[in-house]
Amino acid sequence: MKELKVKSGKGALILRKSRNLVGLKNSEEKDFSKKEYVKSQVFKNLGGFNVVNLEKSGSSIDEKLDEVRTKEEVEVGTHVYYAYGSSKPLVPTGEIYIIFQDGLSEEEQQLALDEYHLALVERRGTDRIIAAVTKDSPNPIKVANGLQKTSLVKLAEPDLDTFVDEYAPFVAPEDDMLEHQWHLRNSGIVADVNFPLKRGADAKVFDAWSRLGNTGSGDIVIAIIDNGFDVSHPDLKDKIHKPFDLWNQSSELDQGDSRFTHGTPCASVAIAASNGKGIVGAAPSAKFMPVSGTSFSLRATEQMFNYCIENGADVISCSWGTTDPAFDLNPMKQAAIAKAAREGRNGKGCVIVYAVGNEDLDFVNYYAAHPDVIAVAASTSQDQHASYSNRGREVTICAPSNGDWPILAARAWWDEGVTWETGAFRYYRDGKNRGSKYKHFGGTSSACPLVAGICALILSVNPGLTAREVKEVIIKTADKIGNPSEYVNGHSTKYGYGRINADKAVAEALRRLDKQNEAKPEVGNSISNGRGIFRFDVRKQEPVGFGIQIGAFAEYGNVLIQVEKLQNAFNTDVIVSINELNGKTVYKVVVGAYANRDDAKRLQQRMKAKGVNGFLRNLKDLK
């Protein structure tokens, strides 16, 4: 669905249309809920509109809204939007706040309003007004974007309404085993045993949730490639999205083989649901794509990653691989991983996370050594290197796992474990039974999906990030742990760039979103600041004929930039009217000088086709 970008406050919003919701307005009709074209009424008043869910019957939302607008009782109909990173509906009220360039007369400002058939609602000063769309106007978001592109306007911001926060405290998940999950928030002690941990030696996932005010987006898909997925487990069963089994080439996953149970605990560390019972994953709102059937085969490697690309995986977690030199990756396998990391997510790249391995070696799993993946080592609840975790220059990051006290994770129903003489399941390090659906878990196998879940939180707030940028974010925001002398140029072969910090990573993703949304000034190809040596051809222009005014400028450098661009783009004369206004020099830039109005209008159409907005001017009116 096409993205729309609009000014908002100090930055901008990237909007997408709701697929089902629209806003309807009638000065007398207050309730649309009983209309045959309305499936349900969602809000009675948002931005002056009744927000409803339409009965679409196979039609697109655009087609259905156009149809509904013809109804006698509908005075105005509008799309409803969502900003990326937010689940709050946004409704354009129809008003637009406009700040014009310095030095424009009210007559020149009126040209901008006439261009879009806008009505003046209120004047807030010589350069600031509030205008409203009319029945002849495009929708207010398109109008604001069009105004923003013309040099007559400094700012055009559509008025959008949504629900403001009431500052209720964030309600964290309340799953009954959450207090055991020290890797999410380390309080310094294991809940049900007197085992001391290092307070704060965790991934800061609770802090990230608090910053977000939620547990991530339900639109993010985490693919776990592994074996032994218990799709009936209460923490996984309601989250499953497009499962696939490579061994049987089916969406029906093979279950019940006691040799294969690894996928269930791995998945739970990343995405276990927040359902009030059991445990919770780092990204409990994310969708779970189980891809079952790990393999060294080239054909299978290509298929597993292609499946993830084609079926919308955002993050891919792989807690498997090899450190046997005989099974290093050939170029074709490297290419299969690179393709997913660069072409997935519609060109932004799937975020691929690999465990470095548990062999206590000075080199990492060959898959984790791929330059396009995030290679994850393990740290302990004491913020130390887990002795089993492989080391190497390719290590990107480390994440909390076992080494002194293990992680709590989901257990597949066919995982046999070991029983004590008492009959209690020995799924727990200390033999204490915490239920048959869970077990103690660890290794880089656990650290890897923890990082995958945190990557899903990062994409929840900034889905525009590329896979490479997500990797940059977690590197930049990691906490240095262990001995500082182990880091060379910020990197350690044990810890990578440090222990992952979900809260800092989410904050950096938000910061980058704000930066991405900042308006970037247009700069000419060869002129950047109006300084330098230029060739002038100055001829007096008689105030006769018609042209297209694109703006009024107070800075001479901006005039040079615009004139160069316009001459190159349209191969015609550019006229500059220079005048004094309130003690300041004002430069008005007009493209063309035609004897008749129709020729100027044809130029205006050419300019619009190239994205340059301007207004028809009679040259005698230039002052």
Descriptive notes:
The chain has 623 residues and is of the alpha/beta class. It has three domains: 158 residues, 2-Layer Sandwich (Alpha-Beta Plaits), CATH 3.30.70; 302 residues, Peptidase S8/S53 domain (Rossmann fold); 76 residues, Alpha-Beta Plaits (2-Layer Sandwich), CATH 3.30.70.1070. The strands form four sheets. Strands 1, 2, 3, 4, 5, 6, 7, 8 and 9 form a nine-stranded antiparallel sheet that branches. Strands 11-12-10-13-14-15-16 form a seven-stranded parallel sheet, sandwiched between helices. The chain has a four-stranded antiparallel sheet with strand order 20-21-19-22, sandwiched between helices. β7 and β8 form a beta hairpin. α6 packs parallel to α7 and α8 runs parallel beside α10.
Measured between the Cα atoms of the first and last residue, the distance is 45 Å
Annotation field: number of helices: 12
What's the CATH first level of the largest domain? Alpha Beta
CATH topology of the largest domain: Rossmann fold
Quaternary state of the chains: single chain
Please give the domain count. 3
Strand elements, count: 22
- Strand fraction: 15-25%
Our Rg estimate from Cα atoms comes to 30 Å
The average pLDDT score comes to 87
* SS content category: alpha/beta
CATH superfamily of the largest domain: Peptidase S8/S53 domain
Shape, please?
A: elongated
Which regions have little confidence, pLDDT < 50, spanning 5+ residues? 518-528
SSE blueprint:
Layout: E1 4-8, E2 11-25, E3 38-46, E4 49-54, H1 61-69, E5 76-83, E6 89-100, H2 106-115, E7 119-123, E8 128-132, H3 140-149, E9 153-161, H4 205-212, E10 221-226, E11 244-245, H5 263-271, E12 287-292, H6 298-310, E13 315-318, H7 331-343, E14 351-355, E15 374-379, E16 397-400, E17 407-410, E18 438-441, H8 444-461, H9 467-476, H10 502-517, E19 546-553, H11 556-570, E20 574-581, E21 584-594, H12 597-609, E22 615-618
Parallel strand pairs: 10-12, 10-13, 11-12, 13-14, 14-15, 15-16
Antiparallel strand pairs: 1-2, 2-4, 2-5, 3-4, 5-6, 6-8, 6-9, 7-8, 17-18, 19-21, 19-22, 20-21
Helix pairs in contact: 4-10, 5-8, 6-7, 8-10, 9-10
